Amino acid sequence: MYRNKRSIIRKLSAITTGILLTAQCFTAFAETPSICGDVNRDGKINVTDIIITAAHVKGKKLLSEKQAFIADVNSDGKVNISDITLIAAQCKGKKMLPRVNKPEFQKLSSLTGETLRAASNGKLVTVNFTPQENGQSNGVYDVKVTDIETEKIERVLSFDHYVAVAGIKKDGTLILVDEVSGNSANICFYHPDKDEPEVVETELFYPDVTYNEENDEVYLYDGRIYKLTAQGEMEDISPFSEDDDYYISCDLKNKMIGLRSDSKENPFLGDLSVISLQTGKTLWNTVQHSGSTTFSKGYTVVTDIIDKTDDIETSLRCYDTKTGEKLGIYKYDDYEPIMYSSEKSDKFIFDDHFCKVLVFDPSNGGMACIDTGLKNMTLCNAVFLDEDTAALVIAYMDGEKSKQDVFILDTSKLEYNKLPEGIDVETSDDFKPKTLGDELKEQRKTADRLEDEYGITILIGNEVLNVQNYGYSWSSTEENMDPHYPETLDSTLYELEEWLKVYPEGFFEKFKTEDNPEGYRLLLIDDFNENDGLVNQVAGRTFRASDDYIDIVVSQYCGNLDVVMDHETWHAVEDLVGLEDPFDEDEWEKLNPEGFEYFTGDYFAGDMPWDEEFEQYLTHWASINHNYENGYFVRDYSVRNPHEDRATIMEFVYPSFTKSGVYDKEEELPKYAHINAKLEYMAEWIRPYFGYVYWEEMIKNKYIPAPGEALG
């Protein structure tokens, strides 16, 4: 990044991780629940409920099992004086009960300390961690298998390290994922009545492992997708090549994947294929701007994050999974939600990042909202038990304490309201490639000529808006374009050509590699959007927005174009050479003053130290005091990080200034011992890649090239 001296978002998979659930919960939601604290179930919480609960606590008249559940308002598994106090506070209006039961939303008691990892074939598989008494992190992990109907613990396996649970088969075989030597994982099948497991060794590092109850199959995912065969072998069923670059939304439960790849024709949209994992065939295709693809029993929701000037919204595009029929596009006024879904239900569940749980029905665009009454809640997981019923794991704050509980949600009892229509990225003009206006057609011809001569790509006007880089944004010179800008761009392209001439012949062709096939790309923008309000303005940036280019972006307000280009081109060289030979930052640190640390503040916001610690090491090369003996850094911006340290050295060398014919930096450089040592280290690092040191070649051959002649 160059500072102008003139200015001072894996989608969490919907697996059953972290659910605390007991057999009691499977019967609790089947009944019509009462209001928490309404012990006599008359629809009100009053003094009668206090008297009935007090009689139970004193042993005078015991409550029924159902009444005891309602009276246990603090959900500690007991009915005592604490519950009486809470009910009384509710009656007096002093403090609302910590749990407000709704017919559709019920908090459940849990197995103390147990975390549900799998629920299938009538069994619960839970994990309980018991730390060592000395308080160290290691301890004992107990994996328990409990029969849902009888609540009987049928099996306990203990480990001294964490194991993941994939599922349990009908015959009781427990499927665990056990890490081996920190770099691979084994799939372990613990058959009934056998202590030692049947082990399938893998070379995968802790893959996602899912047991499919319906077809009795085990799937694994670590970037590629495998199915475990009956012979214990891993069959790669990935419907894509290892060499292809995809963003994958993988749903092993539903045996579906969404495969998104970059589009060559449209930088704003990727090509999305919906593929059946069972057949390996593509069911249908669409496009996607950004976001994820989520599957339920019969539907697919493709999310697109719509980043507006002052707000963000998400479009929910709903499809029939089998046919690809687009059922509707709906607007969700927030960031992309983390959606939980299941092969057992058509609906999707997520939260609003505050205190509400949302249920979305893709068949008609209906959204239901339930206010949990919980403060600072986060939906940690949601698992459908059937079409309408889901178990939710919710973390929330109770006063100053952090809690996590399990709730049962009956989605059939909620009121659904249809969401407003969302933006269709397939047809919206906002997501079509930007084209150059007629006013800059002549300048485009000049840029084309320079591209052909030097083997680079140059984008001007609205063309720069077709490069997507999440983290930076910029404006086009065609937005509110000054009538005289075409002439200004003519001057910029002339300066650029003069700058390009002095670099060694074939230099920019070196940027075209297997990892960077399109090479060096320059974007001539209006300005960086982030510059508004910054004390120190950003004039240029270098990054890789894709695997095809190394991009340099330069503002029209950058000041000295050649200086900025020298600076940013070093960044590009670092990116390029670093792909084959990463820079040794430890060795670089040895070239700095002993004990020196780069500044970590926000330089562009004006947060920069000006004390003697930094000042004593600056070259002051622009002033009379050159600080030859103690100059380690070219200027203040150099101490921001080692990358800017090296790039500002290239400003100091000014290799592009050799075109002036009066270049004298080669005489000045040896006087700065520390700067020169750094420059020599940089030279030796790039020499093997280029076969020469480009600035040494430029200095050695300094002269004013003839028009169209490259320095050789």
TrEMBL record:
Signal peptide segment: 1-30
**All residue ranges annotated as the Dockerin domain in the record:** 32-99
Kindly name one Pfam family recorded for this protein.
Answer: Dockerin_1
Q: Which UniProt keywords apply?
A: Signal
Q: Does the keyword Signal apply?
A: yes
Query: What does the entry give for GO biological process?
Result: polysaccharide catabolic process
Superkingdom of the organism of origin: Bacteria
Q: Which InterPro entries match?
A: Dockerin_1_rpt, Dockerin_dom, Dockerin_dom_sf, EF_Hand_1_Ca_BS, Quinoprotein_ADH-like_sf
Q: Does the keyword Lyase apply?
A: no
- The transmembrane segments are none
Q: Which GO terms describe its molecular function?
A: hydrolase activity, hydrolyzing O-glycosyl compounds
From the Swiss-Prot or TrEMBL record, give the protein name: Dockerin domain-containing protein
